[in-house]
Amino acid sequence: MAFGSITKSAVTRRLLIILVIVEIIFIIIGLMAIEVSHTESFRFHDSFVQTFPHREWRNKTRKQILAWTSFWFTDYWCDMSIKGEPGRCNDRCELTRDKSRVAESDAVVFHFPDVLPWSTLPPRTPDQVWVLYNLEPPPRQIWYTGGTPWRNIYNWTMSYRKDSTIFVRPYHGYEPLSEEEKIKVKQENKNFAEGRYKIAIATVSDCYDDARRYKYTHQLMKYIDIDIYGSCGNKECPQWKPECENIHKKYKFQLAFENAYCKDYITEKYWEAHMRKIIPVVNWKTDPKGLVFPNSYINIWDFPDMKSVAEYMQKVANNDTLYNSYFDWTKEFKMNCHCGCHWCVLCDALFNTTIPAQVVIDPMQWAVSMDTCKMWSVATFLWRIVERLLFDIGLA
């Protein structure tokens, strides 16, 4: 009797959950219809950047850069100083947050997430460059949905996208080793598999991500052991704390899945794996050539299914020679940090006379339509939550 009562109660709860989910789905469909209608209303440009034959030019030996907007809604812009090789940009550019100096500034920088529809724009001069700066992909930008009140205003884009006017790396990059460094690496002849006796680790805090990482993580776990840390897992590991770093030393692979399939967007997940000398397992759907170390990762989309991925990971884990081949890049390259706000890169660009006069016709469409991932919206956000709930109760 009690068993029957419990079963009936469980069924009732599940039916209520399903009814709520169905109602939410209808709301989402309505929101998506509104958003599609809104999007189609301004999708009429063949190109999002228009160039002009003549560019106004200030012949100055020292350029001034003005950070006009806030940075993540604070007055603190990362690294308000010019850093670089002496003579390269240290003494060629000056940074300021003083808006009264806008007329004398050569570049005015706007942080895209801080440009709101009601933002006040400064007066401008023809020889001034307005730069739209952005390091976050569309799924992480809720204000992308606020319309496009900034058409034909900005001249340059400065972002993680390789098709930007100025391409910058949000996290890390790499550069060739010196000859002395190559000799040292060769002498060390390190075995990167040594001391690593566990298969895979993952640290996940976004449980409702756009890429649905939980689905293929769950599939992989059918074939290999994966320890999941973070708010989406059942294990805790304070990031970059000594005890956490010691935990990572046990593993041969780190799941470095991105939370969205965005063009050219390589986050800290990949770089952190290599900082720890663990092979990253990634989920990139576009070619990252030139953005990451060659032959330095395992991409799940290079395999027909997750079972094949797991079998290959096991093969690599059991073969030290094969495992170490994923670190052959250490014989030729080293990681460097592209931290801060990339002021030196912008400074160099201001002295580059080959960049034509141009205007970004529609920055929102450039950021979204030219990308490979979806823009943030209420509908997509709610659907991600619903899809995860359906997955957790075994209905998706």
From TrEMBL:
<dbReference type="GO" id="GO:0008417">
    <property type="term" value="F:fucosyltransferase activity"/>
</dbReference>
<keyword id="KW-0812">Transmembrane</keyword>
<dbReference type="InterPro" id="IPR055270">
    <property type="entry name" value="Glyco_tran_10_C"/>
</dbReference>
<dbReference type="InterPro" id="IPR001503">
    <property type="entry name" value="Glyco_trans_10"/>
</dbReference>
<dbReference type="GO" id="GO:0000139">
    <property type="term" value="C:Golgi membrane"/>
</dbReference>
<protein>
    <recommendedName>
        <fullName>Fucosyltransferase</fullName>
        <ecNumber>2.4.1.-</ecNumber>
    </recommendedName>
</protein>
<comment type="similarity">
    <text>Belongs to the glycosyltransferase 10 family.</text>
</comment>
<keyword id="KW-0808">Transferase</keyword>
<feature type="domain" description="Fucosyltransferase N-terminal">
    <location>
        <begin position="62"/>
        <end position="169"/>
    </location>
</feature>
<dbReference type="Pfam" id="PF17039">
    <property type="entry name" value="Glyco_tran_10_N"/>
</dbReference>
<keyword id="KW-0325">Glycoprotein</keyword>
<feature type="transmembrane region" description="Helical">
    <location>
        <begin position="15"/>
        <end position="34"/>
    </location>
</feature>
<dbReference type="InterPro" id="IPR031481">
    <property type="entry name" value="Glyco_tran_10_N"/>
</dbReference>
<keyword id="KW-0333">Golgi apparatus</keyword>
<dbReference type="Pfam" id="PF00852">
    <property type="entry name" value="Glyco_transf_10"/>
</dbReference>
<keyword id="KW-0735">Signal-anchor</keyword>
<dbReference type="InterPro" id="IPR038577">
    <property type="entry name" value="GT10-like_C_sf"/>
</dbReference>
<feature type="domain" description="Fucosyltransferase C-terminal">
    <location>
        <begin position="195"/>
        <end position="359"/>
    </location>
</feature>
<dbReference type="GO" id="GO:0032580">
    <property type="term" value="C:Golgi cisterna membrane"/>
</dbReference>
<keyword id="KW-0328">Glycosyltransferase</keyword>
<comment type="pathway">
    <text>Protein modification; protein glycosylation.</text>
</comment>
<keyword id="KW-1133">Transmembrane helix</keyword>
<keyword id="KW-0472">Membrane</keyword>
